[in-house]
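Postdoc handover notes: sequence design on the structure in folder B. Input tokens:
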């Protein structure tokens, strides 16, 4: 009977700990994410949706802006998963590469900009807790993670360009490299 009682108590402690973690997020992280979302939506409203769309079209013209700058700006302004919508301004050939770069950035930016991908914030928080326990700066890690992520977004996007070309050739499909409205 003692084993059953200990198991039941341990089982309930698991949920109590989960509840405590949830409440700490509700008082710390959720208000921060909400304020960042409000700030980004306000900025988009001030700039105008047309200017944001024009920025995306300009960014689509070269690989650096297409796989480093555009994913950063769209994730920062729109968050995940809405950031993928900026790919609509890219020619069909570059869309798979943009999505690859965009999804990577949504993961690597969580430490600095938690509003981008709040659904996966628990992953960052687990890593950051370990760093904090060691007495190291969480922001140093977050910035390094984001900068490495930007470089890897570019590499991932560019490699996906080559993969897209290979698959298109293999399948006998021609994808447009120009943007047509």
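Designed sequence:
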């Amino acid at each position: 009977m003692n084993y059953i009682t200990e198991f039941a108590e341990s089982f309930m402690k698991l949920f109590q700990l989960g509840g405590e973690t949830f409440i700490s997020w509700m008082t710390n992280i959720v208000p921060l994410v909400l304020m960042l979302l409000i700030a980004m939506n306000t900025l988009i409203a001030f700039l105008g949706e047309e200017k944001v769309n024009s920025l995306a079209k300009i960014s689509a013209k070269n690989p650096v802006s297409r796989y480093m700058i555009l994913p950063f700006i769209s994730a920062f302004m729109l968050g995940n998963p809405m950031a993928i919508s900026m790919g609509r301004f890219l020619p069909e050939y570059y869309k798979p590469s943009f999505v690859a770069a965009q999804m990577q950035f949504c993961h690597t930016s969580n430490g600095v900009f938690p509003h981008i991908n709040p659904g996966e914030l628990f992953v960052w928080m687990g890593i950051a807790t370990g760093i904090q326990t060691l007495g190291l700066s969480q922001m140093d890690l977050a910035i390094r993670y984001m900068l490495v992520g930007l470089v890897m977004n570019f590499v991932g996007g560019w490699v996906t360009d080559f993969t897209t070309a290979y698959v298109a050739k293999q399948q006998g499909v021609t994808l447009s490299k120009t943007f047509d409205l």
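Context for whoever picks this up: Helices lie at 2-27, 29-47, 49-59, 63-78, 95-108, 121-133, 138-171. Don't rerun without checking with the PI first.
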